[in-house]
């Protein structure tokens, strides 16, 4: 066998043994740390495996052997952050982009929408005009101009969460007035 190859094989063996020893020493506390961050056992197990794979692959470039525990925990935090970013991105779809797909007329209308469609446009616009502008504009853009929450956010330069809050508060203010219109109409 070539001496150079035997040296690399021995280095690889010692590296594997070192990694195994690190996991024996710090594996349990590493898993507990990940679990404390995500609070879900199966997710913690998955992230733990990802951390081990990343650490194993990066081990040859790791130089400060004395700080291996800190290094493993840093990888764990980064893996958790990556997971949270992906999760947040997925949730953002349901919070914001789902409105782009709600154009099917066969879907059941929200109560506010059905009331808005039942009332005459003139009466409704007059009722809406009584609202402060910050509440009136998002409702007009959403219900009368068919803008999505994201589009309203871009048009008004306010966050989507603020648009949602203003729409909810506007509906709360409108509800008694619209009930009067429906009762009298």
UniProtKB/TrEMBL annotation:
Tell me which domain of life the UniProt entry assigns to the organism this sequence originates from: Bacteria
For this protein, the record's Pfam families field holds:
Sigma70_r2 (PF04542), Sigma70_r4_2 (PF08281)
Q: Where is the RNA polymerase sigma factor 70 region 4 type domain?
A: 124-174
UniProt-listed InterPro entries:
RNA_pol_sigma-70-like, RNA_pol_sigma-70_dom, RNA_pol_sigma70_r2, RNA_pol_sigma70_r4_t2, RNA_pol_sigma_r2, RNA_pol_sigma_r3/r4-like, WH-like_DNA-bd_sf
**Keywords associated with the record:** Sigma factor, Transcription, Transcription regulation
Ranges for the RNA polymerase sigma-70 region domain? 24-88
Entry similarity comment: Belongs to the sigma-70 factor family. ECF subfamily.
Protein's name according to its UniProt entry: RNA polymerase sigma factor
Organism (species): Cytobacillus mangrovibacter
């Amino acid at each position: 066998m070539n001496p150079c190859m035997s040296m690399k094989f021995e280095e690889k063996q010692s590296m594997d043994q070192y990694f195994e020893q690190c996991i024996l020493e710090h594996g349990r506390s590493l898993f507990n740390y990940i679990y404390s961050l995500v609070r879900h056992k199966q997710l913690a197990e998955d992230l733990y495996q990802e951390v081990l794979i990343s650490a194993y692959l990066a081990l040859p470039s790791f130089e400060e052997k004395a700080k291996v525990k800190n290094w493993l925990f840093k990888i764990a935090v980064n893996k958790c952050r990556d997971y949270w970013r992906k999760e947040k991105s997925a949730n953002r779809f349901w919070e914001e982009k789902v409105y782009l797909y709600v154009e099917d007329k066969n879907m059941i209308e929200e109560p506010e929408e059905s009331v808005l469609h039942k009332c005459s446009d003139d009466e409704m616009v007059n009722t809406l005009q009584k609202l402060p502008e910050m509440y009136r504009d998002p409702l007009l853009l959403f219900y009368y101009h068919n803008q999505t929450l994201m589009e309203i956010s871009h048009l008004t330069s306010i966050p989507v969460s603020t648009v949602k809050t203003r729409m909810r508060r506007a509906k709360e203010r409108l509800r008694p007035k619209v009930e009067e219109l429906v009762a009298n109409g």
